[in-house]
């Protein structure tokens, strides 16, 4: 049952003071307002705020201080941690500006802007930004968490493209953070970006890419071992312009999936190449010859169509997730990736839906350790993601779903991963070394000594911060 009337005078005043909106437990849209993208997570903040601008952010901060609450930002909710109790949860949808400066190759992007919206605006410009695979994720959410992009092998961890960050800090001041104004804070924001303030806008680098080629190639699931081995061979000396995300998927029996593939298990290779079809052809020929091809969706495309390559779901869904950064396989790539394919088959009856593996290398491996809080720490060769899409009220047993993958990867993982790859309940001790965590904690103490801000990805215990969480 929801409370019949408001009982908190500070929040009552905030409702009146805001130009935007504050949603609380007795409001009709409370359940949709508080829900993250991952519907398996039942998060219960104190209230959900939709500020109209920086002045509203100051009002929210004052109210949080007066009431002893904390503030957390969740633009789209693709990476929720689960625990936002005691927090006012801020959604930045009103911060929606996009300004493209083609001459300077810089985009100014509000912190509520999704990748889909930014890439649509870049379409036809011949310029690209370091986008990930999903158009519904926010630009801020991906970049402030490090971010793995289709273009990471070419241009590095996506956070490195951040030139400037504008944020409302713990005192309510609107700061502009650049490499000149505060290099240490900029370093920290490029990976641990939710800990220091409410970001209102980012300025990011754009890169010329007049030709793009790519799409998904679909193979029978039985050929997964051959396909994975072929991708590993290609990527061992591929140019950084080529990215391949590959894996296995149990396709749902739904209308959106074309009939021959509907309800089937398939292996896939999702390709993005910065260059022409002619230059991509010799690189991809061994892959196309590695197994019978069920469908080949590769074609020239423009940046506004990037999301079609992976065609990931954008509607909120209940998912159980697992990720790992793979260093190397003791028995070599062919054997190690083959073991992962077999683990996928073993875990399918327990509810495993998808396994996606991204080949790293290129600029990710070369990025200087000081470029971001992430770079230089991601000393891995592959990023793996596995997910179980839960239907109805279904609950899957995480050990049954992910145990086979974990066992197949024993001794082959880094133990640390990108902050954007952290799953529910994981903190930044799963992304950074103790030295980096201490450096981040020191920035936190300087910027937010009272710890008014908390993040989906807090620093974690033993990281030199004054609290057990952040
Ligand atoms: C289907 C899917 C595909 C994905 N693909 C990729 C991918 O290709 N590459 C990749 O790296 N990741 C990927 N992710 C992970 C995703 O990038 C992260 O979970 C990201 O943080 C989610 O963005 P969001 O906009 O939903 O942010 P939310 O989950 O809403 O927030 C994430 C965190 O970002 C910080 N934050 C966001 N905005 C602000 C702000 N304005 N001020 C201060 N802090 C802020 C906060 O710490 C917040 O806790 C994917 C996730 C999903 C579900």
From TrEMBL:
Question: Which molecular-function annotations from GO does this UniProt entry contain?
Answer: FAD binding; oxidoreductase activity
Q: Which domain of life is it from?
A: Bacteria
* Named cofactor requirement(s): FAD
Keyword entries, A-Z = FAD, Flavoprotein, Oxidoreductase
Q: Does the keyword Flavoprotein apply?
A: yes
Q: Which portions of the sequence form the region Disordered?
A: 449-470
Q: What region holds the FAD-binding PCMH-type domain?
A: 41-209
* PANTHER family in UniProt: BINDING OXIDOREDUCTASE, PUTATIVE (AFU_ORTHOLOGUE AFUA_1G17690)-RELATED, FAD-BINDING PCMH-TYPE DOMAIN-CONTAINING PROTEIN
Family assignment from sequence similarity: Belongs to the oxygen-dependent FAD-linked oxidoreductase family.
Please report the name of this protein according to its UniProt entry. FAD-binding oxidoreductase
- Source taxonomy lineage? Bacteria, Bacillati, Actinomycetota, Actinomycetes, Micrococcales
